[in-house]
Amino acid sequence: MATLADYGPEVRAEVKQVREVVATLHEQLIKWNLVVWTAGNVSQRLHTADLMVIKPSGLRYEYLTPSSMVVCDLDGNVVDGAEAPSSDTASHAYIYRHMPDVYGVVHTHSTYATAWAATGQNIPCGLTMMGDEFGGPVPVGPFRLIGSEAIGEGVVETLKKYPKSPAVLMQNHGPFTIGKDAEAAVKAAAMTEEVAHTMWAAKQLGDIIPISQEDIDKLNDRYTNVYGQH
């Protein structure tokens, strides 16, 4: 089994940098009220090798440091780290192997998004910000048990049907989000919880007014190609 010492200086330098990024981003999960106790995880894939950095299993957030982050290959095997990796490691690895443009994955059990997952419902696209960020509804994926690649398979098969969405709600489990890096995936997790909360509140007031797919496509195109700094 390969160890980090088997990789060159460029890879080891990126591992050091990504460990710092991933450790720091876990603080954002707490800041945005997306996790409790030890639930949830962030990972980021390397550009210089088929490796990823992920949170250790069951370690409280206040104890997370760059050195406690675990380096794994894209089959989920540990390459470097003193701790056991997240129980979702095999699923993160599966996503990276099958979605080559994805370099960040996040899983949370945030309250409102997980409530939609528990009822097996897509979050309907009733907000312009959903058109912007998700290009349609936030989809629900299939029920799968934890501890193998099965959840990752469900994430990939669902997002193939919703290619503009960076988020999927795994039924009876919770949201998984993807991005061009871990920060983008964390942003998607925060946005998922925000729209989950707002759409839940809207349902208490009455029927949600859907946005047409034509307008959703225009919103998503503007957000992707015009909004922000380029």
Automatic annotation (TrEMBL):
Family: Belongs to the aldolase class II family. AraD/FucA subfamily.
Record protein name field: L-ribulose-5-phosphate 4-epimerase
Lineage: Bacteria, Bacillati, Actinomycetota, Actinomycetes, Bifidobacteriales
EC code(s) of this entry: 5.1.3.4
InterPro entries, per the entry: Aldolase_class_II_sugar_metab, Aldolase_II/adducin_N, Aldolase_II/adducin_N_sf
Catalytic activity: L-ribulose 5-phosphate = D-xylulose 5-phosphate
Cofactor: Zn(2+)
Classification via SMART domains: Aldolase_II
Superkingdom, taxonomy of origin: Bacteria
Organism: Bifidobacterium erythrocebi
Protein's UniProt keywords contain Zinc: yes
Every Class II aldolase/adducin N-terminal domain range: 20-200
GO molecular function, one term: metal ion binding
Keywords recorded for this protein, A-Z: Metal-binding, Zinc
Family annotation (SUPFAM superfamilies): AraD/HMP-PK domain-like (SSF53639)
Pfam family, one: Aldolase_II
A GO biological process held by the record: pentose catabolic process
Annotated Gene Ontology cellular component terms: cytosol
